[in-house]
Prior knowledge:
alpha+beta, PmbA/TldD fold, six-stranded antiparallel beta sheet, five-stranded mixed β-barrel, 9 helices, 19 strands, 36% strand, globular, Metalloprtase-TldD/E_N
Amino acid sequence: xxxxxxxxxxxxxxxxxxxxxxxxxxxxxxxxxxxxxxxxxxxxxxxxxxxxxxxxxxxxxxxxxxxxxxxxxxxxxxxxxxxxxxxxxxxxxxxxxxxxxxxxxxxxxxxxxxxxxxxxxxxxxxxxxxxxxxxxxxxxxxxxxxxxxxxxxxxxxxxxxxxxxxxxxxxxxxxxxxxxxxxxxxxxxxxxxxxxxxxxxxxxxxxxxxxxxxxxxxxxxxxxxxxxxxxxxxxxxxxxxxxxxxxxxxxxxxxxxxxxxxxxxxxxxxxxxxxxxxxxxxxxxxxxxxxxxxxxxxxxxxxxxxxxxxxxxxxxxxxxxxxxxxxxxxxxxxxxxxxxxxxxxxxxxxxxxxxxxxxxxxxxxxxxxxxxxxxxxxxxxxxxxxxxxxxxxxxxxxxxxxxxxxxxxxxxxxxxxxxxxxxxxxxxxxxxxxxxxxxxxxxxxxxx
Length: 448
């Protein structure tokens, strides 16, 4: 994997070569990564892996015609062929009036914000093995846990560099450390499985493996002896571990390409109240050590913390340059991309701001409710907002978590859910998409 400076040089040289070969404009992105991981099961080492990879992508424009090409061969001959192939493909591509790089006057310029995404410390396989074993041992020590599907630990690093003919050049490096374990509780047909995982950019921010393991074991044991509740209308609480999925459906609906295709259930909702008063949904690409932090977007535009929803009102679409031109707006600094194709749009560190009531208060808000801790299937219609998912979790009675439930479905419409949902105060930044416990006052619950 190349250093940031070398990666940026590669990207810049490809852009220059593309212009020399006849492209009107071009951008290039380098993506390099390396990772190693260890898997254990029942105290024995099962698997050790290490992977390295790097790829460069080139996007060229000839008028309003464009093409994207990529290569993992960095030899001079291969890169020269990449450039020639890209320009030739662009000349044969259909015209797209919306195609083009980000406007030069909007590009970011260094020095870029310090997102503290790199940890200089390296971990060897021995340290990873010890972490995986510690997590698994802690899970197996939980009373009621009877077997293990394995514990794992990993470390990774990546470098991203971007250059454009509009004058942008930048690079950044990120690292990651992780720990996970999956265990089984109970015996025979009544067995239940659950897991826990944590990841962080810096090793010192990673949860202790004993905490990860204990949580996995307690989750598995808590699922023993589930019931199926009587079908009907229930208040439904979404546990933080799965509440972020609702934010994912929202993001899909405000992405510029979906709006431009008129395939979003939020199509005509910009500037309107779609969440309850007080609800705020924030995108924060500059959070220090955030799992999705970035100093610039996938087109070289500056990034900033922004409220996608403020006081319940939808404030913006997420648009790369192409979809922004279709919508008649400026690009929003949310372009995301890999080496193999043109940019799309997406969030960085996305979170729903905490509300005013605690998780315990939300649990006690109704005499009987359902706490969902797992979602199954993909039954969401992005055009209409109709929502139906398989689920598992726990009954809640008079504020106390009661017996586990499984093999159920929960259904509603996302517009109705957004309009009535209430966030708790228990927000923690642990993933790329974070949410506190969410209460939806009424959904249909049935048998799966």
